[in-house]
Amino acid sequence: MAGSSPSMEPDSSIENEILTAAAERVNGLSLSLTGTYCDCHVNGASIGTIAQDNQQVNGLSLNLLTNHVYLQNGIQIGSSGWAYQLNGIQVGLFTSSVHINGIQAGGFTHGTFNRGLQFGIVNISNHLKGIQIGLWNINSKRQLPLINWNF
Predict the structure, then answer these.
(1) What are φ and ψ of residue 16, in 5° steps?
(2) For residue 17, what pLDDT is reported?
(3) Distances from the Cα of 88 to the Cα of 2, 33, 50, 61, 96, angstroms
(4) Cα–Cα distance measured from residue 138 to residue 132, given in angstroms and rounded to the nearest whole number
(5) Can you name the residues that pair with 58 across neighbouring β-strands?
(6) How many angstroms separate the most distant Cα atoms in the chain?
(7) Residue 84 forms beta bridges with which residues?
(8) Measured between alpha carbons, how far is 116 from 114 in angstroms, rounded to an integer?
(9) What letter does residue 124 receive in the DSSP assignment?
(10) DSSP assigned state of 91
(11) Exposed (0-12), middle (13-18) or buried (19+): which is 127, by Cβ within 10 Å?
(12) How open is the CA angle 110-68-96, to the nearest 5 degrees?
């Protein structure tokens, strides 16, 4: 049934807020010894050690511990990573995103709407259009070890 599955498209009201409500724009490098917490749009790289919380990053978002970005276009790396909208690659021990177009890799990966590849020890996707590779893979159709898919 065409109307029974939720939309794979991002919520336009949230996306519009992300795109228009930046308190600060950084073009180049945002570097912090402890981390960053701001309503920033970063075009380049945002690098920290303890925690990152940015509104939008176009480029690299790198942190040793927690990495939280509403709209990530590019690469997000951290022990723990979260993105509302991820277009690119997300890498970490624990990764979670609402809308993903690209690759999620880590120990435990979770995505609500995934288009692409999940690669980890445990992979969970509520609505998958792609492939899962890991020890245990869960999507809305089935649960399988090693490899799982839904198109």
Answers:
(1) -65, -40
(2) 59
(3) 28, 25, 23, 11, 13
(4) 8
(5) 43, 73
(6) 51
(7) none
(8) 6
(9) E
(10) E
(11) middle
(12) 0
Q: Give dist(CA 138, CA 124) in Å, integer.
A: 5
| 59 contacts 72 by C-beta, under 8 angstroms | no
pTM comes to 0.86
Phi-psi region of 130 (alpha: psi -120 to 50; beta: other; left: phi over 0): left
Select from 99, 14, 95, 27 the least CA-distant residue to 57.
27
Break the chain into its structural domains and give their ranges: 15-78, 81-151
Instruction: Taking residues 68-84, report their average pLDDT.
Output: 96
CB 108 within 8 A of CB 122: yes
Taking only the tens place, the pLDDT of each residue in 29-67 is 999 888 888 888 999 999 999 999 999 999 999 999 999
Residue with tokens 């997000």: 76
